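hiii so um. not sure if this is the right channel but i have a protein structure encoded as tokens and i wanna go backwards to a sequence. like what aa goes where. can anyone help
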């Protein structure tokens, strides 16, 4: 199952039965606007758990990054894990800018879509790494990779994703 954005309503996602080589599941829901480009996927039963979660370690509570936290003298250290040809690798870096913005091109938006409220990092990522989780040194989720440009990797803030998809953080008390 693959998805594509509607030409007339880019915030809506259309679904297709076309199979692709890197098919991992069925898109259940999705949204794209200036703050998020995200889909929720029901993973196919024969897909093994993603190993990069194990490289990050246990997850902490969501971290609400604030602009005031950025200090060039004491940068916030972050990490993500990406799949490379032979293995999954953990990559580390620092937050360079928040909130950042960048124009990303889409097939239905050749002039691009200005994405705002992004977290710009020094982590080197490549095309195909989209969706990688960004966490701080304590394992607190901060964002998901949306793209790369100008030697920076851009992540959507995790709070924007949760709000857009109406997701609630799980805890033992919920």
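sure thing!! here u go:
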């Amino acid at each position: 199952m693959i998805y594509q954005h509607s030409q007339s309503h880019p915030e809506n996602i259309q679904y297709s039965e076309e199979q692709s080589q890197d098919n991992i599941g069925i898109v259940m829901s999705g949204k794209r606007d200036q703050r998020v480009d995200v889909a929720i996927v029901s993973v196919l039963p024969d897909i093994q758990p993603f190993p990069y979660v194990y490289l990050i370690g246990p997850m902490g509570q969501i971290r609400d990054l604030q602009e005031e936290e950025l200090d060039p003298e004491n940068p916030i250290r972050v990490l993500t894990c990406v799949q490379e040809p032979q293995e999954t690798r953990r990559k580390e870096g620092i937050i360079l800018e928040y909130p950042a913005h960048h124009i990303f091109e889409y097939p239905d938006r050749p002039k691009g879509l200005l994405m705002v409220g992004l977290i710009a990092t020094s982590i080197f990522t490549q095309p195909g790494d989209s969706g990688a989780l960004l966490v701080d040194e304590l394992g607190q989720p901060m964002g998901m990779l949306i793209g790369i440009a100008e030697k920076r990797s851009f992540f959507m803030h995790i709070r924007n994703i949760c709000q857009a998809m109406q997701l609630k953080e799980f805890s033992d008390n919920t």
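oh and Confidence is low (pLDDT under 50) at residues 1-17.
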